[in-house]
Design goal:
212 residues; alpha/beta; Methyltransferase, Methionine Synthase (B12-binding Domains), Chain A, domain 1; Rossmann fold; 2 domains; five-stranded parallel beta sheet; 5 strands; 11% strand; binds CO-5-methoxybenzimidazolylcobamide
Length: 212
């Protein structure tokens, strides 16, 4: 692995939040692809952090510092992913479901979609069913993206789909779901139109929905 990417990865794992911005800024100057910095540096680091947390090697405070460090790094890469000229290819409404505060993965998906030329309206985290459905009615996006990282919040995705159906909005929007505990079988079971296993797959799925 590229030495600078390795440093970024270690920086996030160790929560070196004071250094991360300059590390990412430096590597971006070399012309490396922002996707590579995100996938092999920032995301790879959070996978390690997640494993350490699961193994009881680190606890919530350390995990939060790593998450914050990753976000600082993402903020540096973001301008390089977005701002491509041309009319948006379509509108995607995104949010993390009610009861769930995890937004790192969702933010990466948002960035990648923006980088691919879509307009993304990000509702944020902990979004209740009513707010999602009202936004679909108002914005009329081609795609609604729902993220969940907790097994306890996954049922919220089903509630959103049921409510869209009840309000006669289901046929107007494609629903994409994602997040670590979600899989294709779950997506099918709750009546979603597709599942994105990662940000790259999410972009491919949205492209297939809108025909770009
Ligand atoms: Co939380 N947390 N967390 N956490 N956290 C997990 C999810 C957990 C698996 C850790 C563990 O126990 N091993 C566990 C869930 C267990 C379960 O549900 N069975 C857990 C827990 C338990 C909790 C708390 C309850 C802990 C506590 O307080 N005791 C609490 C809950 C708070 C809440 O939400 N109500 C909590 C809190 C937190 C922090 C605040 C400390 C922090 C979140 C910070 C933030 O997001 N702003 C945090 C973190 C960082 C994690 C882990 C370590 C990492 C998550 C992450 O950012 N991954 C996580 C462990 C893990 O996942 N290994 C864990 C990196 C990110 C790039 O990946 O989000 O999967 P991911 O996104 C990917 C794909 O999934 C996909 O694309 C992304 C990019 O490739 N994707 C989509 C995501 N959304 C998509 C949507 C799409 C398509 C693709 O379409 C719409």
């Amino acid at each position: 692995m590229n030495e600078s990417i390795q440093k970024i990865k270690e920086g996030v794992i160790e929560g070196r939040h004071k250094e991360i911005e300059s590390l990412v800024r430096e590597i971006c100057k070399t012309g490396i692809s922002p996707d590579k910095v995100i996938q092999e540096g920032l995301i790879a680091a959070m996978n390690v952090v997640g494993q350490k947390f699961s193994d009881g090697e680190i606890f919530v405070p350390e995990m939060m510092v790593s998450a914050m460090t990753m976000k600082l790094g993402l903020n540096i890469v973001k301008p390089l992913m977005t701002g491509k000229a041309g009319a948006p290819k379509g509108t995607v409404l995104m949010g993390t479901v009610k009861g769930d505060l995890h937004d790192i993965g969702k933010n990466i998906v948002v960035m990648m979609l923006e980088g691919a030329g879509f307009q993304v309206i990000d509702l944020g985290v902990d979004i209740d069913v009513e707010k999602v459905v009202a936004a679909v009615a108002e914005v009329r996006p081609q795609v609604l993206g729902l993220s969940a990282l907790l097994t306890t919040t996954m049922p919220e995705m089903k509630r959103v789909i049921e409510e869209l159906r009840a309000r006669g909005l289901r046929d107007r929007v494609k629903v994409m779901v994602g997040g670590a505990p979600v899989d294709a079988a779950f997506a099918e079971k709750i009546g979603a139109d597709g599942y994105g296993s990662d940000a790259v797959q999410a972009v491919a799925l949205v492209r297939s929905f809108v025909g770009h």
